[in-house]
Amino acid sequence: MLKMTRVIAVALPMLSGAAYAQDTVKIGYIDPLSGGGASVGEGGLKTFQYLADELNAKGGILGHKVEIIPLDNKTNPQESLIQAQKAIDAGAHYITQGNGSSVGAALEDFVTKHNTRNPGKEVLYFNYAAVDPSMTNEKCSFWHFRWDANSDIKMEALTSYMKGNAAIKKVYLINQDYSFGQSVRTQARKMLGEKRPDVQIVGDELHPLLKITDFSPYIAKIKASGADSVVTGNWGQDFALLLKAAADAGLKVNWYTYYAGGAGGPTAVKQTNLDHQVFQISEGIPNSGNEAAMEFEKAFRAKVGLSLWYPRAVNEMRMFKAAAEKANSIDPVKVAAALEDLKFDVLDGGSGVMRKDDHQFFQPIYISSFGSRSEKEPFDEENTGWGWRLVAKIDTPQTMLPTTCKMKRP
Amino acid sequence: MLELIVISTLNGVLFGMLLFLLSSGLTVIFSMMGVLNFAHASFYMLGAFFGYQLTKWIGFWPALVLAPLLVAAVGMAVERYGLRNTHKHGHVAELLLTFGLAFAIEEIVSMIWGKSPVDYRVPAALDFPALTVFSTNYPAYKIFMLAISALIFVALLIALKRTRVGLIVQAALTHPHMVGHLGHNVGQVFMLVFGVGSALAGLAGVIAGPALVTQSDMAALLGPILFVVIVFGGLGSLPGAFIASLFIGLVQTFAVALNGSLASAFGPLDPSIGPSVLTDIWNVTIAQIAPVLPYVLLVFILIVRPMGLLGTRET
What we know:
- By secondary structure, chain A is an alpha/beta fold.
- Chain A is 40% helix and 19% strand.
- In chain B, a hairpin with a 2-residue loop joins strand 1 (129-133) and strand 2 (136-139).
């Protein structure tokens, strides 16, 4: 027995030393890697791979190597469930997904069911970009954590900003026809109605998701409506092509967007020549002025060749590590418990918190505009020469919207 | 309102002409060989990517000529070494071949050029607003697209109606065996037609690439609507394809411009009914159903006039 203990005593330090512990932490990355959403999905994948490399360079999570498993869901909820099962079969206890709230809702439901049926083999769903509010409200799940501000929080911040801007008189809403786009449209109507009852909503458009190749007909309609501002939740090619058509037609309005910074977006904005007339609401921008964040941005760009579009992914992966260390385990149930109410200093500065009630992460929110840069703004986007400029910052406490979530804990 | 109508008409005609460039080749191939070429839209995509690559190497104008020729070569090779060999196994085999080919081309394209949209830009010489309708600019490039499509339509019509080759093609459309018995090389005619059809699709790709989006799913986005056009217009009928293309282009564009819904026509539903499927249907606007309209038209025309607008035989 004594001999045995000696062997263990010698072997243990070897295990936790330079070599990784036996199991790797596998994270299934389920997002579009083909089809209309591919440009966004590929960027996300590169970001997560970079972040995994970053963690691994510092010894991984509790000595476990972190591995990202790329899985193509073609932005399709059904396909996503197949891919989630594939991830689980490959030994992943964590999945991460962002593009498309319809996919997000399906995955949240899938993970909840899976964990009820397979106790001891739980899977956590880390959501870095699906922003349908229902996922942390009526449909909330203990197994789901969201790092992006949900669309209500973003709209709350955006309309608070628009409230102080008297030049806005006629607003046009154009959104993708699925859960997220519909929620942007309803919230914009509701919140603008409360904060700026004098603003006229001159158009309210829903178009098919990632299927339009030419937005000229829609632009003609916006022009005819006499709008001075457009609010859109469009992302990916739906944003780039919308702006491209606007540029062709010479439409000059202010654009209030969720995702102008996505792949192809900045190029399209530059083509329209709308200098600081396209606004974006996000949890961080490259030219934030925060030193650590700008250092990270520089290193990220040098290695990946893209600008950091998901500061929330950085928060997600770093918080995952912090939670695992707090729980001293990579067991999903323990990590989930450790994540609840975990406070974390976010990449762009300031403190955020993963609210226990609904597993929504709250963090400072920024409104920025895209256009020509000053000396203090070193980063441009997509080689356009233009970059993001900080317009307004909404601190964490002001973003705390109430939730209707009644969390069922295991 | 007038501005919206004029702009929508221009946009609709433009989209229609683009559809025509694609459907003209498809409809002639279909009626000649009896095979619905599922890979036709893939040739359109190849055209766009060849156009993009050649533009990078040698500039847009040479690419405008070379890319369609390259696509024609690919098309003829497919006919000569693919379709002709499978022909003896019947139409199903040919259909499956083109079906598989469509997927293969998509995968190959995304392997070479990636899945993100490529930066295929309008040539500088055409990158200015050509005319201003009221206050909306209409880009010169779109006018150029219109001109090219119109030119092709006229050229095609003359080639088919006024030349000897056209005569043989027309004869082979309806009586391929008879044409063969008269000593014409029907195989070669097929290959030629397939090549020209592919070239037209390629040309459509080269000119549509910068205006729309050039990426590996562009074939899948446009493919289904082509079948609507050729069935709607009538198989083998060029004027039919022309009318159907314009019609569908205009219908889609104008549907987007309209805001009407059942609610706006008959007033909102009684609120006591509450939110249900019915209120969803009641409030849906014509703009929202615009993408479905062509397929509704397809079903409608198949019921009312199975041979299509100007077709002579049943689908």
